[in-house]
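=== RUN LOG ===
request id: a7f3
mode: sequence -> structure
chains: 1
length: 114
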Amino acid sequence: ENQLKLLKDITKDNKTVLFEVINNELDPHIIKYDNERLVVLDIVDNDYEFKKMPYYELLSTFNGYEDKGFMVKEYAYVISINDAESFKRFLKEIKNGKYKYDGRNIEGFVIEDS
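=== RESULT ===
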């Protein structure tokens, strides 16, 4: 009930909340998760010009809703990729099957450009 109110409050300002759904039974993932949850990827304006909520505002908006099944994507790091070869090297590193982020297995990254 509180989750729905939060989402209605956010979207009333002509915004869309982007999620990844974690549900092992209905939507199996590469990695087995302990519990179901919604991972908030972004909140974007419904407009022709792309604009999204800054990361710190995402955290603030969903603060206190972790126990309700919401989790905001984790901000990992920023890297500069200036050409296709740099991007290919990055992909090769994270796809080698042995890559762990912060000591744990992960499914992947959300990659954003400027």
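=== NOTES ===
DSSP finds three helices and three strands in the chain.
The two ends are 36 Å apart (CA to CA).
=== END ===
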